[in-house]
From TrEMBL:
Protein name per UniProt: SHOCT domain-containing protein
Domain of life: Bacteria
Pfam families in alphabetical order: SHOCT
Organism this protein belongs to: Sedimentitalea arenosa
InterPro entries: SHOCT
Domain SHOCT: 39-65
């Protein structure tokens, strides 16, 4: 009986704690540590490996260069 009570209490406590901090005051920060050159190198490697098409390569390359202006 005590185990059921403790287990239930633990479950309720976890539910309450997991709900904390999920208000409307959230902020998200994206940090990119990859350089433009590295992104372009990786993109070219994906093209050379056949992972992306030439059209995809051009679209993504232009997006990377535009983002860094």
């Amino acid at each position: 009986m005590t185990r059921i009570f403790v287990g239930g209490l633990l479950a309720v406590s976890l539910a309450i704690v997991s709900g904390c901090g999920h208000g409307s005051n959230r902020s998200t920060t994206n940090v990119t540590t990859t350089t433009t050159g590295q992104e372009l190198t990786d993109l070219k490697a994906a093209l050379d490996a056949g992972a992306i098409s030439p059209d995809e390569y051009e679209k993504k390359r232009k997006a990377i260069l535009k983002r860094k202006e």
